[in-house]
């Protein structure tokens, strides 16, 4: 049996993608107002669960079920290149799924069920017959919930040992919905190829201009909702900061909408950064008021 190279194993887990759920996990920690020092080892386990395990599993699952397409478009990837041989891509995904569930069970019942939902979405996103990734409405929603809402929820449940409060769940859901728009930004670069391969991203279904407007609305409305909730909960300064970050995004959106295909990567780097900063501002408000 061919030996699996450690570098290939790390590559198929796509570590760069771990940032989003780990950032959401950090927001969940902050939103509880609990002392980090008193939860040290538990938090390490939670970070490993959110990033390398659950997110890493989703990446391995995706690469396994995309191996035939990758053999044509990106033959140097670990699975089509043979650096992860045979069916080991599938076996690794299954092993990581079980490891994720075991660790989640150890961390607590609410963490476990959040992991179950996240892993179910990870497999459904890529695995036939579901293949949520083939439709931008479903696929982007699955990623938004998995990468933003569930890690935030998981961290809050881990810190409190209980079901998170309604304000925490509300902000986690809002920013998870907003991530649907963020995911659409990634789909402008391959409209022709996706159309030929039957991948019905929103730019394919709606056309670039309409998909760009939709992405902006889906990103902006939840942030406006978060600002209004923060104001209603008695955090006017935090609400003002979130609103200010949104206003700055609106200025950037104007340029993106002029030519979505050209400026999608630019707006993904600029507007998305402002959005995720707003996440932490909202989390800080809840933590301050806890």
Automatic annotation (TrEMBL):
GO molecular function: chlorophyll synthetase activity
Key words, A-Z: Cell membrane, Chlorophyll biosynthesis, Membrane, Transferase, Transmembrane, Transmembrane helix
Single Gene Ontology BP annotation: chlorophyll biosynthetic process
UniProt cross-references to InterPro entries, sorted A to Z: Chl_synth, Prenyltransferase_related, UbiA_prenyltransferase, UbiA_sf
Membrane topology: Multi-pass membrane protein
Record Gene3D superfamilies: UbiA prenyltransferase (1.10.357.140)
EC number assigned by the record: 2.5.1.62
Subcellular location: Membrane
A GO CC term assigned to this protein in UniProt: membrane
Residues passing through the membrane, by range: 12-31, 37-55, 90-123, 152-175, 239-257, 269-288
UniProt enzyme class: transferase
NCBIfam families on file: chlor_syn_BchG, PRK07566.1
Protein name: Chlorophyll synthase
Organism encoding this protein: Roseospira visakhapatnamensis
Taxonomic lineage: Bacteria, Pseudomonadati, Pseudomonadota, Alphaproteobacteria, Rhodospirillales
């Amino acid at each position: 049996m061919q030996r699996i190279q450690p570098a290939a194993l790390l590559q198929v887990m796509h570590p760069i993608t771990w940032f989003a759920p780990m950032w959401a996990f950090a927001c969940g920690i902050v939103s509880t107002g609990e002392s980090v020092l008193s939860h040290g080892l538990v938090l390490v386990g939670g970070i490993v669960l959110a990033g390398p395990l659950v997110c890493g599993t989703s990446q391995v699952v995706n690469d396994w079920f995309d191996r035939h397409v990758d053999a044509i478009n990106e033959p140097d990837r670990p699975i089509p290149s043979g650096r992860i041989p045979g069916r080991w891509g599938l076996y690794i995904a299954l092993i990581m799924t079980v490891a994720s569930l075991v660790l989640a069970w150890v961390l607590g019942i609410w963490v476990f069920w959040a992991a179950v939902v996240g892993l179910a979405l990870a497999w459904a996103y890529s695995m036939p017959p579901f293949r949520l990734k083939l439709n931008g409405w479903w696929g982007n929603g699955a990623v938004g919930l998995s990468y933003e809402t569930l890690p935030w929820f998981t961290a809050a449940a881990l810190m409190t040992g209980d079901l998170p409060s309604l304000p925490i769940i509300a902000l986690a859901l809002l920013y998870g919905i907003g991530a649907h728009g963020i995911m659409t930004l990634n789909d402008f670069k391959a409209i022709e190829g996706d159309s030929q391969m039957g991948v019905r991203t929103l730019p394919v279904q709606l056309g670039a201009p309409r998909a760009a407007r939709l992405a902006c609305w889906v990103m902006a409305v939840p942030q406006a909702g978060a600002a209004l909730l923060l104001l209603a909960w008695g955090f006017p300064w935090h609400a003002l900061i979130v609103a200010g970050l949104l206003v700055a995004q609106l200025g950037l959106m104007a340029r993106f909408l002029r030519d979505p295909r050209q400026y999608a990567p630019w707006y993904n780097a600029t507007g998305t950064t402002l959005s995720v900063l707003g996440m932490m501002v909202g989390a800080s408000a809840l933590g301050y008021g806890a």
